[in-house]
Amino acid sequence: MCIAVAALPAQALQCQQWQGSTLTDMREDNWITGSVSSTSEAFGEGFENNASGAGPPESGWLLAAAGDPTEETSVQTEPMLVVEFDPAQPIRQLAQNYLGDADQWPKILESSGVGSILDLQPGQQLRLPVSQVKAANQAIRLSHREIERANQAGAQLFAPQIIALAISNYDEALIKRTLGEWLEAFHLAHQSRTTAGEAYEICQKNRDGTAEARLSDKQGSVEGQRPRESTWRNIQRNALLVEEEKVRTLSGSTAQITFRDASRLRLAPNSQAVIQRLRADPLTRTENTKVSLIEGDFYALLADNSERKRFEVEIPGIEARVDSGDFWISHDADGAKLTNYDVAAVRVAARGETIVLGRNEGALVPADQEPIQKLDVLLAPVPQAPPQDETAIAGQVLLQWTAVAEATGYWLEIASDPQFNRMVTTERGFPQTQFEADSLAPGIYYWRVSALDRYDLPGARSNTRRLEIRSDTVPPYLLVEHPEPGEIIREGPVTIAGQSEPGARLTIDGSAVEIDDQGLFQRMINPTEGEHELTFRVTDRAGNEITRSQNFTYMPDRPAEISYASGMRRIAPGHFIVNSNVLSLAGVTRQHAKLRVEGENGSPLALAYADENGRFRGTVPLSKDHQNLTLRVTLPSGFATTTHFEVTVDRAPPEIFLDSPLPRLTTDAELTVSGNLSEAAVLRLNGREVAHQGRFEQRMELADGSNPIELVATDAAGNVTVRRWTVQLDREPPEITDHQVRIAADENRTALHISITVHDASGLARIAPFTINTGTGHASGYLHYDRVSRRYVGEFDNFGTMTANAKLRQVELMDWSAP
Question: Are 16 and 151 contained in the same domain?
Answer without folding.
Answer: yes
